[in-house]
Structures are given as C-alpha cells and as structure tokens.
C-alpha cells in the first residue's frame, strides 16, 4: 500500500502543541509494517518552510535527517507543474494551494488513494484521508 504524506500531518508529528499531534502520532505508530510513504518535492519544500518558521532550525534538521529518508519523493516535472497550475486556475479556489494541486495530480496519475493528512481538500478530491 502506498500512502501519500502531506504537510499538515508532517507538521502535526513534529509539533507537540499542534491540535492534531496525538492523532498523527497514533496513525504513525500504528503502521507496524511500514507502508510505502510517498510525497513530492513540493511537499518537502512546503513542510520545511513551515517547520523552519514555526519550530526553528533544530526541528528542520530532525525532519530532514529522520523523516525525509523514509519517503519516496516524487519530483514535480514541468508537465506536472503546468497541469496543477491549470487545475488551480480552473478551480479558482483561493484556499487550495498549488502544492495541493500538484499532490492531487501526482496521486491520480500514480493511482494512490490514501493520504496521511488533516487537509479536508484531499477528501473533497475523492481521496481517503488518514486518520
């Protein structure tokens, strides 16, 4: 099973004060036989920027050294970027970021149904959200 990992879940794992921290930790700990965890380079970038801003450089270092190696990172190509940008503009929804649209596009193209996220937009797009 492949699970797409999104920024809100990654952040919740690292920030003990995040209101989703316990749920994120419970899901993370429940994976006895680790499924294939996948994200995009855009999610890594977005996560690092958020972690750096809110938690500082020690948290960024922990994220980079302890979590990123666990992920199969899918790199966004110019074609994927263009498709996601078109979807963003067509939807005209301010609340869904380009990073999210790239995630949706990658998940659809690779047939990934499950996302480890607290972002309701994934469910709106037809994906199963964990937790």
Could you characterize what this model shows?
The protein is α/β, with parallel strands linked by helices and 131 residues long. It has one domain (2-130): Rossmann fold (3-Layer(aba) Sandwich). It is 58% helix and 15% strand. The chain is built from 7 helices and 5 strands, in the order E-H-H-E-H-H-E-H-H-E-H-E. It has a 5-stranded parallel sheet. Helix 1 crosses helix 2 (21-30). The longest helix has 15 residues, at 41-55. The mean pLDDT is 95.
Task: Indicate the CATH topology.
Answer: Rossmann fold
Number of DSSP-assigned strands:
5
Domain count: the total is 1
Shape verdict: globular
Helix content: 55-70%
Kindly report the spatial arrangement of strands forming the biggest sheet: 3-2-1-4-5
Order of helices and strands: EHHEHHEHHEHE
What's the mean pLDDT score? 95
Uncertain parts: none
User: Could you tell me the radius of gyration in angstroms?
Assistant: 14 Å
CATH hierarchy class name = Alpha Beta
Largest sheet: 5 strands, parallel
Give a short overview.
The protein is an alpha/beta fold and 131 residues long.
Summary keywords:
single chain; 131 residues; alpha/beta; Rossmann fold; 5-stranded parallel β-sheet; 5 strands; 15% strand; globular
């Amino acid at each position: 099973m492949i699970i797409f990992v999104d920024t809100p879940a990654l952040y919740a794992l690292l920030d003990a004060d995040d209101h989703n921290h316990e749920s994120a930790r419970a899901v993370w700990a429940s994976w006895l036989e680790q499924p294939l965890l996948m994200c995009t380079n855009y999610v890594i970038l977005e996560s690092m920027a958020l972690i750096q801003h809110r938690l500082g450089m020690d948290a960024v270092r922990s994220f980079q050294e302890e979590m990123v190696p666990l992920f199969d990172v899918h790199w966004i190509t110019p074609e994927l970027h263009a498709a996601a940008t078109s979807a963003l503009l067509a939807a005209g929804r301010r609340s869904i970021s380009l990073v999210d649209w790239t995630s949706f596009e990658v998940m659809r193209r690779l047939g990934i149904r499950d996302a480890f996220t607290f972002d309701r937009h994934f469910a709106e797009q037809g994906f199963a959200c964990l937790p």
